[in-house]
Amino acid sequence: MFVASAGPLGEGTGGAVRYYSLARYALLDALRLFGVGRGHRVLLPSFLCREVLAPITMLGATPCWYEIEPGLTPVGSPDMWPEAAVVLAINYFGFAQDMAPFVAYSHRTGAKIIEDNAHGYLSRDAQGRWLGTRAPLGLFSLRKTIRIPDGAALSVNEALLVKGLPEQLPFDENGLHQAQVLKTRMRHIPLIGSRLLRIATFTARGIRKYKTGSAAPLSDPLLETQIGVAPNPWIGLLSAVAQLDNGSEIVRRREAYSRCALEGQRCGVAPVFTILPDHCVPYGYPFRGDDSGCASMRRVAGRMGFDLVAWPNLPNVFERPFPAYYRNVFMVNFLW
Ligand SMILES: Cc1ncc(COP(=O)(O)O)c(C=O)c1O
After folding, report:
1. pTM value?
2. Phi/psi at 194 (nearest 5 deg)?
3. Residue 183 resides in a domain
4. Is residue 207 part of a domain?
5. For position 137, which CATH number holds?
6. Residue 111 burial (CB < 10 Å; 0-12/13-18/19+)?
7. What is the pLDDT of residues 256-289, one digit of tens each?
8. The pLDDT of residue 336 is above 90
9. pLDDT value at residue 204
10. Are the C-beta atoms of residues 97 and 118 closer than 8 Å to each other?
11. Which residues contact 262 (CB under 8 A, 6 or more apart)?
12. Which helix (H) or strand (E) holds 156?
């Protein structure tokens, strides 16, 4: 049974939350709270977006890596992972990561755990615990769940860490990305807004493909070193979070997932996760597929009013070639 009004933010042991424009800033403050700086190592899964590296680089720290299985759990035993000051556990696509290997690693090395729940606002694990509250610090990228220009949060789940937290930054327009402002304005044009935005996006992708050979924006190495916009959260963030009907949103996402799973079988693509666990609230429908499966799923996504994206935008710095199964993951994005 889901409770319609309850949400994960503020429910950690410490109960403190700070809001930002992007989850990268939440990670920056999380690393600072753990005293990470020059010379420290931060252990990350090698299957992640290159953007996540920026806060680590900005603090002068060094990333080190653990690898990920096709089912998006860590490869092998945490006894083999390199030593680091902090380790990041990611709930990919809103599916709960098993925290046990991270706790074991933390016991062995003294590393602090950050739960990266950028994808999983409203999602819970098999025990009913909110994702993002299962480690001392949890990250949320709210803009990935709610259609808003920006929005992210850091959940401080350990009372002792609260006293080191900086003041909440003002909620204003400083952190806004101009492209997001334009998209939001377009979407709010009565009656035709959503359609207009879809046509504009389709046209922009076509022009980009013609000019660069890729419909998606070319991956920018600067994403690994800079964040690019200010950290201040958007002025409308808290009311957007309050207005979200959590119960309906949970049902909507789970229903969209079930429908995509059926369509996925028809299109011949393979789901990344074989089941949708009871309390999971998915970011989207992640799958692996070839060009033709992807083209079919893109049509399915379009009919459902959704977008299809490739994920992730892998970092450049990993020493070894990535396994092939890192490079064929796509997601029907349930953002509404
Ligand atoms: C797993 C994960 N963590 C963190 C982030 C950063 O989120 P944001 O774009 O809000 O900074 C992303 C997305 O880039 C992500 O996919």
Report:
1. 0.91
2. -65, -40
3. no
4. no
5. 3.40.640.10
6. buried
7. 999 999 999 999 999 999 999 999 999 999 999 9
8. no
9. 79
10. no
11. none
12. strand 152-156
Quick check: CB of 329 below 6 Å from ligand 1?
Answer: no
Distance CA 48, CA 314 (A): 6
CA 14 to ligand 1 center in whole angstroms: 23
Query: Which pLDDT does position 200 carry in this prediction?
Result: 79
- What's the domain count of the chain? 1
The reply to whether 50 falls in a domain is: yes
- Average pLDDT (114-130) is 97
Residue identifier of the C-alpha nearest atom 1 of ligand 1? 118
Take residue 324 and report the two structure tokens written for it: 């092939």
- Segment 91-101, tens digit of pLDDT: 999 999 999 99
Residue with the nearest Cα to atom 7 of ligand 1?
Answer: 23
Is the C-beta atom of 152 inside 6 A of ligand 1? Answer: yes
Position 237 in a domain = no
Omega cis (within 30) before 55: no
